[in-house]
Amino acid sequence: MNHRRLFALAAAAVAAGIATGPALAQQTIKLTAAAGHPPVFLWVKTVDEVLIPEVDKRLAAAGGKYKIEWTKAWGGTLLKLGSESKGVADGVADLAIVSTVFEAPKFPLQNVSYFTPFGSDDIGLVSRTIADLQRSVPAMGDAWTKNGLVYLGGMSLDTYHIWSKFPITKIEDLQGKKLAAPGPAANWVRGTGAVPVAGTLNSYYEDIKSGVSDGAVVFVTGAGAAKLHEVAPHITKVNFGAQFAGGVAVNKGRFDRLPPEVQKALREAGEAWQAAYAAAQSAAVDAVLKRMVDAGAKVGELSDAERKRWADALGPVARTWANDSQSKGLPANDVLNAYMATLSKAGTKLPRDWTK
């Protein structure tokens, strides 16, 4: 083999190395994921066990050019409940579960379900309806962008009931009792004779145990994880309806700087998480309730007539919310009308028309 041939082969090898070298190099991107709730709650558990692995899986399937090095900060260790959106926007965390129910001033339209109690108990229906509204009502979808966030997927909670120290069969049983409720859900208690007390799943157990409250307005899977039946053994099925409570969001500046492959993986993983969470939440309800009953909890259910009495006893919750939001330039009437129309069309039996 002559010198020219050797030189040509060497040059080709060098060229091949230059061409393939960068393709073989893997770039590690550091991201911090946070939540105000601990992973005992399903929405955090599924972010840890579904969303994050889905991102990793998609990046690997795309050729492994990028890899995420995750730091996980659950249970309020980095971001406290109700401050997640600011923490992500400020860059304290890159990704977090934003609880819109506790950040109503920033996400007023997202809370439409909390201002229309006694709605549908169908988690999937509520989730799809809010998702459709966020796409069709610009002011609703833009709330995430305005707060420096990119929305990846949302979560709805199974229908709310009451866990209490005392049995409830009629509205009169609530007279003078203190019931803890999250954010706007306090409106479900006002007008019944009960006193609403601010609280969250992180505080309900100790509040009831210490007498700060006599019970809590909460949903089955959350109550089960918090073991509320141990301090409030009377479960009254009121069926306030499933509620949209928030979603997973990423810091917008951080997201915009990520490579397109990583952006795509995050968005697709967010959709996968939303579907997996909704299915897991729905599937868990009966089993969680059975465990509480097996542990000694007593379950009662309000009659349709009593639910209507309760609904009629409340003030114009939705109209007050809508009028206030409209005065701030938000299309709350459109959101309210569309939300109620969708529930009705789906066959939901509503004891009160909140649009009036």
Question: What's the helix and strand layout?
Answer:
Blueprint: H1 3-24, E1 27-34, H2 42-61, E2 66-73, H3 84-89, E3 95-98, H4 123-136, H5 138-146, E4 149-157, E5 160-164, E6 178-181, E7 195-198, H6 204-210, E8 215-219, H7 220-226, E9 234-237, E10 243-251, H8 252-257, H9 260-294, E11 298-301, H10 304-313, H11 317-327, H12 332-345
Parallel strand pairs: 1-2, 1-3, 6-7, 6-8, 9-11
Antiparallel strand pairs: 3-10, 4-10, 5-8, 5-9
Helix pairs in contact: 2-9, 4-5, 4-12
Give an overview of the whole structure.
The protein has 356 residues and is α/β, with parallel strands linked by helices. The chain has two domains: 24-156 and 244-286, 3-Layer(aba) Sandwich (D-Maltodextrin-Binding Protein, domain 2); 160-242 and 289-317, 3-Layer(aba) Sandwich (D-Maltodextrin-Binding Protein, domain 2), CATH 3.40.190. The chain is 45% helix and 18% strand. The strands form two sheets. The chain has a six-stranded mixed β-sheet. A five-stranded mixed β-sheet has the order 2-1-3-10-4, with helices on both faces. Helix 2 runs antiparallel to helix 9. The longest helix has 35 residues, at 260-294.
